[in-house]
Design goal:
Elements: H1 2-23, H2 29-58, H3 63-83, H4 97-112, H5 117-120, H6 125-160, H7 165-178, H8 183-195, H9 199-216, H10 219-235, H11 239-256, H12 259-275, H13 279-296, H14 299-315, H15 319-336, H16 339-355, H17 359-376, H18 379-395, H19 399-416, H20 419-435, H21 439-456, H22 459-471
C-alpha cells in the first residue's frame, strides 16, 4: 500500500510544481494538502482504468482482484483523511464504491445467467457476453412494448380522426414517437397536419413515409407518399413542384397497374391544371379519374371527381352544371360520413346560390359549412367560408362586415401560406377600397394579388388583376410590367 500511497504523493508534487512553473505561485500547506488529495484521486482513477483494461481482455480479473482493489482504495482514503485536518464539513470520497458495486453485480449477473465460466477461466469476456445477451433481450422487449403501445395510440387516433382533429393529432404524434418506423402513423399524421394547415409539417411526415417505403422497397407505399407530398405542395401553392410529384406518383401506379392510385393522381393533376387556369386539361384529367372510379365502384373517388368537375363548371360560369355535380358529390359524401368533404360541398352549393344572386340561401350554406369546419379545426375550409361570407356582406353593401370577413380569411391564409387564398383576399379587399373611393389603397391590394398570382402561375387571376389595375391607371396593369 505504501507504493500506491507514494504514487499518489508523486502526482500531488507534480501538480504543485506545474502550478508554480506556470503561474509563479507557490502553494501553501493547506493548498498542498488539497493538491495531494487530487493526486490520490488521480492515482485511484489510474488504478480503476487499469482494471478496466483487464476486464476488456488485457489480462484476467477475478472477483478477488476486484475485492482487493476496493480494500486498497478504502485504506488509502482512510490514511489520507487521517493525515490532514478537516477544513470543511463536507466529506470527500473517491469514485471507487460505485465501481466495485457494479463489478460485483456484473459477476452476479453472469452467475444468475448460469455462466460460471466467468470465474473458472478468470476472464471477464464471459461476463460481458452474458450482460450483452441480457441487454439485447431487454432492448427487444422494450421495442415490442413500444410497438404495442404505438398501435394503441393509432387506434385512439383512428377513433378521433373524423370528429376531433386535435386529439387525433396528439394520438398519431405519440404513435410515431413510440415507433418511428410506423408507416401508418406517419401517413395519418401527415393528413391531419394538412387538415389544420400545417402543410410544411405534413410534407415532412409524408417524406418519412416515403423514406420508410424506399428502405423496404415498397413501391405502392412510396407512390402514395409522393402523391400526398404533391397534394401538400398544392396547398402551399407550389404548383410546379406539385405537378412533378403527382406525375411521378402516377407513373409508379401505371407501372404497377394500380387503378385506384392512377385515378387519385389523375384527379390531383386535374387540380394542378385548374389552379393554373387550364380548365380543358383539368376537365380531361377529372373525367379520366371518374371513369376509372366508376368502373371500380369507388364512391369516395367518384364523389371527388364530381366535386372537381363542379368546380371547373362554376369557374367557367355554368352554375346549373356545377350544382348537378356538387349534389352528386354531397350525396356520396353524406353516405360515406366524410365531414370535411360535406363542409366543402355545402360551401360549393353556397357559391352556386351566390352566382344566381340568391344571397340569403348562399349565406345559409356558407354558415353551415363554416360550423362544420370550425368543429373539425379545418383551417383551409374556415378561411374559404370567411371569404365567401365577405362576398355576401359586400353584395349587401355592409362593407364593414365584409372587410372583417375578408381579413379573418386572409389571416388564416397567411398562416397557411396559401397563396391562392391570399390573392383572392387581397383582390376582394381592393374592391372594398375602390368602393370607398380609396383607389391608391385598392391598387396596392391588387398589386399584391397580382404578385402572388404570378408566383403560382394562375393565369385567370393574373389577367383579372392586370385588368383592374389597368382600368385604375396603374402601370402594373400593363402586360409584362415588373412589380
Amino acid at each position: 500500500m505504501d507504493f500506491v500511497f507514494g504514487i499518489a504523493e508523486y502526482f500531488g508534487n507534480w501538480i504543485a510544481a506545474a502550478i508554480e512553473h506556470l503561474t509563479g505561485w507557490r502553494p501553501d500547506e493547506r493548498a498542498k494538502n488539497i493538491i495531494d488529495w487530487i493526486g490520490l484521486i488521480t492515482s485511484a482513477i489510474a488504478g480503476i482504468w487499469g482494471l478496466g483494461a483487464l476486464i476488456r481482455g488485457g489480462g484476467s480479473a477475478t472477483k478477488q482482484d476486484i475485492e482487493t482493489l476496493r480494500q486498497e482504495l478504502q485504506a488509502l482514503r482512510e490514511a489520507r483523511e487521517a493525515s490532514q485536518p478537516s477544513h470543511s464539513g463536507n466529506p470527500v470520497s473517491a469514485p471507487d464504491t460505485g465501481l466495485a458495486r457494479d463489478l460485483d453485480a456484473a459477476l452476479d449477473t453472469a452467475l444468475k445467467a448460469g455462466n460460471r465460466r466467468a470465474l473458472k477461466d478468470k476472464t471477464a469476456a464471459a461476463v460481458e457476453a452474458a450482460i450483452d445477451a441480457l441487454l439485447a433481450e431487454h432492448a427487444a422487449a422494450r421495442k415490442r412494448q413500444s410497438k404495442e403501445e404505438a398501435a394503441l395510440w393509432r387506434q385512439k387516433g383512428a377513433l378521433a380522426f373524423l370528429r376531433d382533429t386535435k386529439a387525433a393529432l396528439a394520438a398519431y404524434a405519440k404513435a410515431t414517437e413510440l415507433d418511428p418506423d410506423d408507416v401508418e402513423a406517419w401517413n395519418a399524421l401527415g393528413h391531419l397536419q394538412q387538415r389544420v394547415g400545417k402543410s410544411g409539417e405534413a410534407i415532412a411526415s409524408f417524406e418519412r413515409v416515403r423514406g420508410l417505403a424506399d428502405k423496404s422497397g415498397n413501391l405502392p407505399i412510396a407512390a402514395m407518399a409522393i402523391g400526398n407530398i404533391g397534394i401538400s405542395q398544392i396547398a402551399r401553392s407550389e404548383i410546379s413542384a406539385a405537378e412533378r410529384s403527382l406525375t411521378e406518383a402516377l407513373r409508379i401506379y401505371e407501372k404497377l397497374g394500380n387503378k385506384v392510385g392512377m385515378a387519385n393522381q389523375l384527379g390531383n393533376l386535374g387540380s394542378v391544371h385548374a389552379a393554373r387556369g387550364d380548365f380543358e386539361k383539368a376537365l380531361s384529367a377529372f373525367r379520366q379519374a371518374l371513369a376509372i372510379d366508376e368502373a371500380l365502384g369507388r364512391k369516395d373517388g367518384m364523389a371527388n371527381a364530381y366535386a372537381n368537375i363542379g368546380n371547373v363548371f362554376l369557374r367557367c360560369e355554368q352554375p346549373d352544371k356545377a350544382e348537378a355535380m356538387y349534389r352528386k358529390a354531397l350525396a356520396l359524401y353524406e353516405e360515406l360520413g366524410s365531414a370535411t368533404d360535406i363542409a366543402t360541398s355545402t360551401g360549393n352549393l353556397g357559391n352556386v346560390h351566390l352566382t344566381r344572386d340568391e344571397i340569403d340561401a348562399a349565406e345559409a350554406m356558407f354558415r353551415k359549412a363554416l360550423e362544420i369546419d370550425t368543429k373539425l379545426g379545418h383551417k383551409q375550409g374556415i378561411a374559404n367560408h370567411y371569404g365567401n361570407l365577405g362576398i355576401v356582406f359586400d353584395i349587401r353593401d355592409d362593407l364593414e362586415q365584409a372587410e372583417a370577413m375578408y381579413r379573418k380569411g386572409l389571416a388564416i391564409n397567411v398562416e397557411l401560406g396559401d397563396k391562392v387564398g391570399m390573392a383572392n383576399a387581397y383582390g376582394n379587399l381592393g374592391i372594398l377600397s375602390e368602393r370607398r373611393g380609396n383607389l391608391a389603397e385598392a391598387c396596392d391590394y391588387w398589386r399584391r394579388a397580382l404578385d402572388l398570382s404570378r408566383q403560382i402561375g394562375a393565369k385567370p387571376m393574373i389577367e383579372k388583376m392586370q385588368g383592374w389595375l389597368r382600368n385604375a391607371g396603374d402601370p402594373a396593369g400593363q402586360s409584362g410590367a415588373v412589380l
